Structures
1.
Amino acid sequence: MVVSKYKSFNTRFTEQDRACLTSNFRLAETIAELIGPHCEVVVHSFESFEHSVVKIVNGHHTGRKVGSPITDMGLKMLNQFEKTGNMTPESYFTTAKDGSVLKSTTCVLTGENEKPVGLFCINVNLSFPMAEILKTLVPDMTKMQSEAHETFSASPKEVIENALNHAIADVENDNSVTSKGKNKAITRVLFKNGIFELKEATTQVASQLGITRHAIYKYIREFRS
């Protein structure tokens, strides 16, 4: 049992509390992968302040590992949360033991009944040359052609239309597809990409390809079998 001046920590952590923390582990890995190797992401647990780090990615920036203690800033933010309910303070700059300058942000994680159970922290090391940091954020133009298409749209119709246009372009560039088999090949690309999970996809694709919905359904049944 954690003995603390904070009223929320007079009881043991439940399995649900721990599950809440664990559910953020993959998010930590995802954010670190997105931002790059100069980004440290940490999940702290309030079950033990002395061993609060339960997940850390790129911990070499601060020299920490799983089992490391909470920071003084972490305790300060917990105290602020207890007083104000503020879960996400503004980002701040701090300095690691080796002198590295970090830009950081911390969010309080809450479990059942809004009980604070931990912290989610992101630290970006700004001490590396900016060109080196930007290199991890800028796409390699030699690989851009092989990158996946992603459509950011305000409506499902636009998502379907863009996916269909990409599928048509892919099939048009495939010399192995005959003229007779193009509609089926286009439908297969859309099927593999999950576009028919959208309700209006069948009608919209059939209309733009100039075929019936029955034909689309027939193709889909073949793909599934």
2.
Amino acid sequence: MQTKALAPEYQGALTRMSVNASLTDVLAEGVRHLKRAERSGSQEEVARAGLAVAEAHRRLGQVAEADRAWKASYRAARSAGNTGAMAWALWSGGTLARQRGSLRLAFRLLGLAAEAGKRGGDVVARGYSLAGLAETGRIQGDYATVATLHEQLLAEARARGEARHTVWALEGIAQIHRNTGSLDSALEMFEEAAELAGAADDRRGRAWALRGIADIVSLRDGATARALGLLSEAEATCREMNLSSALAYNHKMRANVLFRAGRYAEAREVYKQALGEFRAMDEPRGEALASLGLVKARARLGRDRDATAADLDELRGRLDRIGLLNAREMVEKAYAELGVEPASPEHSVPAPADAPGAETASAGAGDGRR
């Protein structure tokens, strides 16, 4: 039996805040309670309020503020001797690192968070941290390693009736299936996630699921109108809850759908929009993937072939630096698709392998939900 969705990262005086609360409201309440906790001298409450502040900043794309807040929350938790609170702060920091494209740091912090959650007896913190590790591996493209962990976390979430975590795990597994070409099973999982999220009143989870459904029906069925309608519904939720990162990924998917439909001029403008949104929140992974879509749209609209090749060279280097294992394959496929050769000898490209579902490189490389 699935419960209503809860937000365990809202703790202490913020426990009653809804998972669907606007992030600006969460930030305002978090700051208010943080100041009160600081005046009272309770380091434990400082840590708890600080966690909500960090997460609100992160999801609003305010990365510098989020970085300061999670570190302050960790210091307060350590001062209070609360290992569980330390785990949550590390989870927040690891999730922020992934959002910023620092995948090695994300693995390190999330691993420490999982260990701290286990030591502190906080099952939920440990579960969220393991989920963070799984999502980081999935975003990196290491599907073989993290698929089993995703399945394990899904089974645990179902057993505990944790709707929000169940939705997350379903979406993660669906994304792996989508990226490896199993579109039918991916669609089934995204649809189940959307249904569960709706029943549990998890609007954020439903918005991500709708994005996944839109991707599949566009890619598999060419159902452009349906896909755009689903994305519009999800976008309304993103705007109401001020989900900056989710909104940027929604726009990137809208551009993908338009590109697949041959509506290249429209796709170019929406890729530009998403690119600006990712830059504003310092999210290099999303920025690089939106850039790749923009390069492809411009090429279809007649951009010079040499300039297109130079753009792809730069992008492949950028994606490699982020650490995405499938970056080389994604860009190589774009070279072949656009009929261009690398501009520089050091970027020589072997013949690309057929990779199911990879033809729209910016479509399914990950999201940053957590």
3.
Amino acid sequence: MLKYSFGLLASVLILFSSCRDFVEPNIPYTDFDTGAYLRTIARTSTTFNFFDLANSKLALTLEAVDAEDGNTVETVEIYVRHRRLIPGVGLEFTPSSGDNLVKTLQKSDFAPNSESRFLRTSFEISALDAIQAVGLTPADVEGADVFEFRLVLNDRFGRSFTNTSVNNNVAGAPFYASPFQYNVSVICPSDLAGTYDFEQSNMESIYGSCAGTITGTTTWTAVASTPGAYTVSDGTFGFWDCYGDSWGNGNARISDACGKLSMSGSDKYGASYSMTVVSADADNLVFQWLNTDGETGLVTVKSNAGKPWPAGLR
């Protein structure tokens, strides 16, 4: 039995070890043409602050990857164009004729580093330079605008590589991270969350008016899923106290879109809310709220110590 088993095992081993392809392809790997790409190492700054365009910038660290560890790179041209989403129309580009050259990196801008064998470069492009390159002024820029920066790598063999040279894996996969295009959004940071003292007057409704003024506190809580949106602890700012009623489970919110305030949502009875800013300075934000049941009031919300209302609220 042992001899038989050993013989069978030996036969199987001989059979598998003798299996091989009938064709041995002779692939000339050394003759393959190789390209180049720019791996994204750090996205230091990829947004423009609407309220501080003068100090906003695109800042990146890139690594040149090629068969010679980045030494084939001659220049990297950086182009920019501006786009805006027009509701009901679609994307509008500036300039409509194409991209504008805003910066050119030279071979000397790439240098060795201590983390890899490839050459790297770090560079910045100011928001003002990008705005000027597309023929606009800071006054022309709006919140949610986007500046598209497209890179073109030129090597010493006369070849060029850009966003149309790579597939999705090379552009977006973490190892390659080489999109050759970086979209920089104009954002409007908002920091209105907090609990504030308020005073309300001119309160009226179809159910009757509320004479004089009332005071209290209002809490605005940031909505995590919607930047710039804040739920309000009481959409009537205490007006219903005149009726002996309470806000309950109503859901009203105030939204900050680059300083333009709006009110939305509804109360527990289904009435929807809106607001109109009357005036705003560092100390007082004054607005009129209104719901679809005809209730309204004029509210003055006081800023907190050390945290004035942002300039430009409207």
